[in-house]
Please model this.
Amino acid sequence: MTHPRTLIRGGLVVTATDEIHADVLIEDGRIAALAAHASSAADAWTADRTIDATGKYVIPGGVDAHTHMELPFGGTAASDTFETGTRAAAWGGTTTIVDFAVQSVGRALREGLDAWYAKADGKCAVDYAFHMILSDVNESSLKEMDLLVAEGITSFKLFMAYPGVFYSDDGKILRAMQQSSRNGGLIMMHAENGIAIDVLVEQALAEGRTDPRYHGEVRKVLLEAEATHRAIQLARVADAPLYVVHVSAEEAVAEIAAARDKGLNVFGETCPQYLFLSTDNLAEPDFEGAKYVCSTPLRPREHQAALWRGLRTNDLQVVSTDHCPFCFSGQKELGRGDFSKIPNGLPGVENRMDLLHQAVVDGHITRRRWIEIACATPARMFGLYPKKGTIAPGADADVVIYDPHAEQTISAETHHMNVDYSAYEGKRVTGQVETVLSRGELVIDKRKFTGRAGHGIYTPRSACQNLN
Model:
């Protein structure tokens, strides 16, 4: 397929390392060159299509390294398909997602992976890759890990939570970490003490504490911190790198910071919901709090300062969404009268880049750090850099023209995710995606969707590029 030669003129190019007033030339779906505005090199360029980015930022497409499209959970399934979810991602300036294929207990990794390949194939508006959820660690699945790494599935998620569903005990976790130490894979950990949490859930329900806010109260900060500590020590024993997903609490950040201070390959991810929402949302009356049930849970507001500080000091390296939407009507409602039956997860793939730009406006992070935590580092962490996550010659032409002055109000009435509420309903933010190119093809053109299902392709990954 021939791509039109495209020239983006007049914008401020922002990457994780630089801010330069430069024109960007795109050929054959890749970045061909950058040159200073009005330089003789830039003036000599010709193109089939010119995009005026004057007064705008020209940034790499976002890399959301943690999404769950069509995930079966708690007797229902996430409401976004790969088609609707990747279209919403594009609207929000994200041009690559890394989703999770799921191994079922008693089944092969290959069977789970093939099921996810089939779900996504020909459906995606932007590029995609997969992690593998290990639900059943045994001799055969450990061997299969090596085969998957060779195929470009280089990260494996384990759960210290959800006994009877995804849970692995410490012995299984250690074996998987030892295997990844040998094969170059990266273990991603959901760090919460699920065995202890289940006791607290049972006690809360027995005492009639059934409202959504108790979801946050039983999933205690100390049980996230304890599991994070334990995961780090197991990774040290296995001499394996560790990536802790959806870090929500100050005490868990402290465990990661302490490990990193020792020079260990331990990494932490947080999500917009922990930076912008809190237990105040879980406590909303009339069961509205159910909209905000996710795990790890939302924390009291005072934890937010520690998360922002962790992002500034690089104790946390990545902001992903953990996008796992369930409609309030008919799905979240399954937990009326029993918070433990509320499907865990919230929508966010469309909001991440805008919320993090608002964090720039609010002074929490710099522009370059915005691009680092949302584009470059997730690409490096999961073996996609510099094909993804930057604007440099040879990189895929995944480019967003971003208007830093536009004002918008986040709302379910205007979002494109297939879910009947917004976790950020009514929040006013400054900054908006105007135009999005994915491998040089216009997917969003001046706030109009021009993409298509099937444009997005599966992207195999190399090993983590962030190791000491």
